[in-house]
Amino acid sequence: MTVDSYSIPAESKKLLHDELVNNKLHNSAPKEIREAAKYIHYTGSRLPVVPINWRFAESVAAVKGYYGAMLNVLLKKKYGIPYQSISINTDHAQLFFMSIMLPTIDPYGEKITTNLTVNPELFEKYFPSCDIHDSMGPHVPAFDRACTNIYKTQDGRFYHLHLSMNHRPTQEALRVERDDEAKDIPSASRKYQERVSEWDALALDELINEKYRQAGTVCLTIEEYFASSHGKANAHVGLFEVHHIVNEKQKAGWWTPVEGKTTPSRPLFGLKVLEFTRAVASPIMGKELAEYGASVLRITSPKVADITVLNVEMGWGKWNAHLELTKEEDRDQLRALIQESDVVIDGYRPGAMEKWGFGKDDILALFENKDRGIVYARLNSYGWYGPWAHRSGWQHIADANTGIAWEFGRSMGLDEPVSPPFPNADFCTGVGGSIGILQALVQKAEFGGSFVIDVALNYFAQWLIRSCGVYPPGVWDMLWAKYDRAVSRSTDNMNVLLPRFMQMVKEKGTVVLNPEFFEDREDKAIGVPIRTIKPVLSFTDCLVKPGYNVGTRANGVDKARWPKDLLTEVVV
Q1: pLDDT at 305 (0 to 100)
Q2: What is the predicted pLDDT for the residue at 415?
């Protein structure tokens, strides 16, 4: 395909129909999805502007379209209305995976951004830090931030370390000598490289993952990943996998409606979603549901590290309450909350919630003798089959593990892996999980029982590789040349790449930063508005109205209970 014939909207539509709706790996979807997807329409610029060889624009537009199609199925089955015409502007859709970098708090007053190198004290007035290990943020020494990076091993391979919200275990594992004189990531990386170069890749992988339980992976090529026992074990999964847990006691039906509120305009109103989540992908699941009326309660803890800057975008439509699961009374309170919920989302590493009695089997058991089931969605990094399923991970780890990082490096003429900037995989994985939840709600209404949705960062990575792919050579060459063939290196971590690529887009990709894609959204929880991107799906007839029941907020603001009035701004 040539530059003259290439079209992002056309390719997005093709991906939606050929690689999602009609993908045999998604054959558990309701049969109506094929007809519902015909009502998804794409507009936008013909050529890409984000200087990455992978087709991020097309992937996010297609996955968002799949969400719209599944929501259409729910609208028709639950409310008996015709499928709604939904428009997706692919320029707008690309802002979705940039959205954590774009908000402005109090846009007519203090104009506080999520760039915490500028006046972090103003930001923390609204969103106090939860960085209990002093591992994140602009105040953290460059040496500690360099703990997340790609380094070359003794046997000539590359290994991706990750600080995992606490840099100390990885530093202890490597016995790396501190360098507090280092002022930037390149200079701070030298001590890590010295230590990593003393290890063979597989031995280091065992040390980091199995002994120290930190995130890390050998940087595999695509061919190596799919040839591995782990790649083979997960190859049969699409974006997600839905499991029906049959139980004749659990009758078919929807969630409990709220009179006058649970309507086609807010189709998920009354749905109670309980979140155990951190970072990006798992909170996106709840946020996607909240956008159409669901009430979401996110459980956090003052003793568990969290990336507070993400709350600005991830927290819309959610209450946020502290519980400490080391306390028996708090565990009892959480069990009670679960039993009032319709959906539970678990985004912690495999085994973390099981330790406290809140794993998949524990939650299913709470509903075993009830007349209604539960929808339980869980996310991990590597996928739920194979030898690495128990490991922790993040988007950078998934990109390095599956070969995406290697292909980005090669696209710039390098013989080394480079992490693609922007959390596209995080965002698309989260949307995929929310699609699985919508599918489960539709099928639970028809068949009863409970449902388990398995989601993984590697699942999206697999789909990106096998179904979406990279730009044709001519298109990539045109795109790369537009940015003067800029080259990033394996030791450029996200602290380096995100600001660099965001600046590139601001200078030469302004079509995606159209002010029409932004809105000033009221946030009663913090007392000032926030300027952020509008919802990506646009309903042509305006019958369905995306938005959020409550504003975003800091951790621990609310009491850990479901309020009687689901429009309550702060639960006290």
Answers
A1: 87
A2: 97
Cβ atoms within 10 Å, residue 139? 11
- For strands 295-300 and 318-322, give the pairing: parallel
How many beta carbons lie within 10 A of that of residue 246, not counting itself?
A: 10
What is the separation of C-alpha 10 from the centre of its chain, rounded to a whole number of angstroms? 25
Instruction: Write down the domain spans for the chain.
Output: 8-110+231-539, 130-163+165-214
Q: Would the pTM of this model clear 0.85, i.e. be above it?
A: yes
The structure tokens listed for 388 are 């690495």
Q: How far is C-alpha 485 from the chain's CA centre?
A: 29
Per-10-residue mean pLDDT, the chain, length 572: 94 98 97 98 97 98 99 98 98 96 95 85 90 79 93 98 93 94 90 96 98 97 98 98 98 97 98 95 97 98 90 96 96 98 97 95 98 98 98 96 98 97 95 99 98 98 98 97 95 89 90 96 97 97 97 97 98 97
> DSSP secondary-structure letter at 268?
T
Tokens read off for 449: 């029982």
pLDDT of residue 135: 75
8-110+231-539 carries CATH number 3.40.50.10540: yes
Q: For the residues of 309-369, what is the DSSP string, one character each?
A: GGHHHHTTTEEEEE--TTSHHHHHHHHHHHHT-SEEEE-SPTTTTGGGT-SHHHHHHHTTT
Report residue 47 CA to chain centroid gap.
25
Angstrom distance (rounded) from CA 284 to CA 315: 9
Between the alpha carbon of residue 108 and those of residues 179, 347, 474, 529, 550, the distances in Å are 42, 35, 44, 9, 21
Cβ neighbours for 537, distance < 8 A, ≥ 6 positions apart: 64, 67, 68, 71, 86, 87, 88, 546
CA dihedral 449, 383, 422, 433 (to 10 degrees): -10
Return d(Cα 97, Cα 99) in angstroms, integer: 6
- In a 3-state reduction of DSSP, which class is residue 277? coil
The dihedral built from the CA positions of residue 256, 261, 264 and 266, taken in this order, carries a sign that is: negative
Nearest to 533 by CA among 552, 518, 516: 518
